[in-house]
Model the fold of this input.
Amino acid sequence: MTAKIYALDSVQTLADFELDALRVADVIREHGVTHGDRVIFKAGNSAAYVSVLFALMHVGASIVLIDQQEHPDETRRIARRTGAAIAFVDDDAPIHADIRTVNLYELIAPAAGRPLTTRELSFDAWADRRDGLIMWTSGSTGEPKGAVKSGRKFLTNLERNAAQVGHRPDDVLLPLLPFAHQYGLSMVLIAWLTRCSLVIAPYKRLDRAVQMAGRTGATVIDATPSSYRTMLNLAGRKPSLRARLEGVRMFCSGAAPLDGALSERYVAEFGLPLLDSYGSTELGNIAFATLENPVSCGRAMEGIKLRVIDEDGHPAAPGEAGEIEVDTPDALEGHLA
Done:
């Protein structure tokens, strides 16, 4: 099966998509960005987003990911804190005029049809950077911070993820998640690592996303519990939409606590549970339930150690509540406050 990138109004083979990303990389260099430069990337999910992401990784830039809807004042603060000299944005990303910006269209349009300077997309230069990726935390436990992540550690973490969950080259991944965050970005890059197909669907329009699931033959869906609840309601009201999900072999959940009753409803409706997971911006992806072990968040991935400690810092007894400590080789390099 030939891997493809499916968007709302376009389909490309992964190989052709990579060649276009190489052309975009040349345009990015013409804007003065070279290996090691730090850039802001603030845009919504689209084929252009993935193309520019791949291009920035090929160039070897340090990428500061910011949510598309982040307030302009906070974006300015992040730009100053990180020292980013340029921001790549789309039309819906609010940003102050004192930040040098380049619209994604200004990269995609001049890249079309230009001669290739190389035919091999490589993330090696980006992977070698200790600051390959800077992702801003939500601030749920204090002030938002920039989690500085090694490119290689990030990719290695995703390789562990794909191996545990069981992603395959014949899969068609449909992430109903923002690509600017840990979970959504993980699925984009797992598709590239696994050389399988990726569907870029409008995750805020779940009726249209479900239609795309059927048309593209989606086999793995990743979404939040609230999205799964909405999808189940849509399928109940419109049998034609339910039929669009019959080819799915895994419904994967994360980014929020999963209600066991919701998973049971999926078993009753589709014969498949919702497979829960756990991860964080700082630590990366940690644990995944699988079809073979669908209980709770499943087991921690290979190479990651967990323990539960009591109030005194001692290992808790079986069945005793406590704090979870995670020992992972894929953790962040540091924080930017």
